[in-house]
Structure formats: structure tokens, C-alpha cells
């Protein structure tokens, strides 16, 4: 009997030394057949028990890693009403408008870019997984803001290729503004897997879906000034070396730029990478220094300010969000069409990388002084030697390429931008006293 074959095969396998000494009478044979079955069942249940144990254990360990939190998250989507919302949100309302899928739409830059696109009549659909890297209630508040402007944010992960393909089935997006990422330089030491999950696997998934979409969209995505790493030539130009990342975060962004090259080369995807320089402003990210310095100064808590070797200045080319948004929109507007169809390249396609910075680095000590003045509270400063945590001592953007190709021209200095941030912060966190900055 064919069913017996695997068993007899198992029987011939000398897994226990005594097995082959047994009598081969039919009765004994049946007994042996039953005992093998019982053994199989026994080991099967032990195996099942072990799987169950590890499964439950991974749930109960606290706190769960960011990666596990992400992968456990399920999104609810689909159905005619959902598709209608998707279509309505992505509908273009101006002549020659774009139809843009914005990933990371409930993030800091994603919210501002989505709102700006919608305001000028482009079709916008958001996608965000609402992970809890920082307070998700802030992301929900941004979502509510977008909802009021007519942007629907679908809850889902960029690694979910079924969802992404579905979105492209429903809407023929002309552009993808890919901003979903695991951000933060220092957190990469705590949760490296989350960077691989979002910035490597997630990006590949987005590129895979875009390459097979018909028509292929043009892609603009967020790289980072951190790719310059240990580069000491200032200001940082797109032509400078970027092969010495100082953090895993930077390494994943650099890897993203290389993968962009590959997808452009093989599939004809039009891709533009934007190296953002320390973006700040209203609705910002609570994991960034200007944000948690504000919170801690107001609470009377001490703040650690990093300094370089020999008390060297640590400085950043802080860039205001409105300037970044202009750079993002200009990148979308100047993006050429992808050239592939059916997953095949038909001709050379555009591949670009731009610095989007402010061109005027400011020491972190000066940032703190501005905050003190705006908040009318003296900070309790603790000067600390910069820990080896992925930080670099300074950043400074050369923006001449973005100026000539995109017409990018940042106009907001740190004092002006922080004033707007502080106004937003006080208003957002003081309203009814319920919210807290974490
Ligand atoms: O430009 C970029 O590409 C990057 O900008 C920021 O990274 P970073 O410039 O390190 O911004 P913050 O984390 O806000 O730090 C700003 C400055 O404050 C300093 N710092 C930070 C934390 C702290 O406790 N003390 C302190 O002095 C840092 O060394 C840095 O010089 C973002 O967090 C990254 O996601 C982004 O990719």
C-alpha cells in the first residue's frame, strides 16, 4: 500500500540500535507499526509543544523588539468602500497634477509633503504602519490632520507586497514619494533589525512593486546626510565619497542608494534620492535632539550636549521642514518618467541624488541657547564627550546641484524655524493637558 511506504521507509532507517533485532512475524509487524505510529505521534506532540512554547515566549518577553512589533501588526484593508476611499484620495484635481503614493505619510516629512501636494491639487494616497518607534498618538494626530485635508492614510507596511500591489491595481500612481523608513542614528545600536526591515527589505519591496507596475511610477525617496559618514571635506557635495558610514542607519541609507542604482539600471525606474540634513519643525520627531531638548528644558531635566575631541564643536546643518517640502515637490515635478514596462527596461532612465540642507551649520550649543530664549527657561546643560554611537561631529550641505536642477533655495534660518516649532510644541502639548511629549 502506498500509504505504508513512508512507514516502511522509516522502518529501514536505523534510528534506534535495537530496532533491527525484532521478530518480523505479522503480529509483531503490526505491533511495531502501531508503536511506530505512537512514537511518531509522541514526537509530533513534543515538537508542537516546543513550537507553542517558543511562540508564546516570544510574545510574553517584554518589551518586544521593534521588529517583532512591526511584523505582528496586521492591517485591515480591502472592499469596495476602502477602494473608493483610496481612489478618491488619489484623484488628481489640477491640470497636469500628479498621482502620488506617499509612504510614511504619518511621519514628520511625510505629513508635510502629503498636505502640500494635496493643497496644490495633486492626488495623494498615504501609507504608514504606525509603528511605535516614537509615540504613535503623534502619528495619529498627523493622520487626523491629513484626513481633514482629504488625504487617506492606509495602515500597512511597505514590506506587505500584496497590499502594495493592490494599491497599484486600484490607482495608476504616476509617482511614489517613499519616506517610510526606520530613522534615527543612535537607535540603530539598540534595534539593528528594524533598520534592515524597513530601510533594506522595505525599500527592495517598494522597488520590486514599482518595477512591475504598469505604468512604472517615478520614485523620489529619502536618503540621508548621514551617508557622508566620516567624510571630512566640507561642505558635503554629492560627488564626495560616501563609503564610510558611521552608523548602521547610514549604512542602510547608503545601501538604498546602491539598490536604487540597480533598479534604475536593470528595470528603467526613474529614481531620485534626497539626502536630508537634520530636518526640524512643527509636527517633528520626538526622538530628535531639538524636540527632546525642548521637552526636558521645560521639565527642568538636564540635557546632554555632545562635544568632539578637545571640546570640539558638534554642529548640524539644521534644515527647516518647509524648505525640505519645497525640495521634495521640486524633485517630483522634475522627475522624468520611468522607461520600463512589464518589468523590462526600454531605455535609460533618470537617476539622481541631491543634498537638501540649509548650507549653514549651527553648533548644538547654539541650538540650545535659541531654545532657552524661546522657552524662557535656562537649560541644565551637561557637556559630554560624544559617545561612539553613530553620531558624526558636523554636517554641512553643498546645495548647488539642488539649486540648479530643482530651483531649491532654503530660506528659513534656525532661529525662525525653531520659533515656529516652539509655538507648535507649546500649543500641541498644552491643549487640555492630556498629551505629553513622552
Ligand atoms: O541629517 C540626517 O540625515 C539625519 O538627521 C537626524 O540625525 P542627527 O543629525 O543626528 O539629529 P539629532 O539626533 O536630532 O541630533 C542633532 C545633534 O544633537 C546632538 N545630540 C543629540 C542627542 C543628545 O542627547 N545630545 C546631543 O548633543 C547630536 O550629536 C547632533 O549633533 C535624524 O535623526 C536622522 O534620522 C537623519 O537622517
TrEMBL record:
Domain of life, source organism: Eukaryota
Pfam family, one: Epimerase
Known EC number: 5.1.3.6
Assigned GO CC terms: Golgi cisterna membrane
Membrane spanning stretches: 40-59
Subcellular location: Golgi apparatus, Golgi stack membrane
Ranges of residues in domain NAD-dependent epimerase/dehydratase: 100-337
Keyword Phosphoprotein included in the entry's annotation: no
SUPFAM superfamilies: NAD(P)-binding Rossmann-fold domains (SSF51735)
GO MF annotations, alphabetized: UDP-glucuronate 4-epimerase activity
Keyword annotations from UniProtKB, A to Z: Isomerase, Membrane, NAD, Transmembrane, Transmembrane helix
Reactions catalysed: UDP-alpha-D-glucuronate = UDP-alpha-D-galacturonate
Primary localization: Golgi
Record-stated family: Belongs to the NAD(P)-dependent epimerase/dehydratase family.
Name used for this protein in its record: UDP-glucuronate 4-epimerase
Species per Swiss-Prot/TrEMBL record: Tetracentron sinense
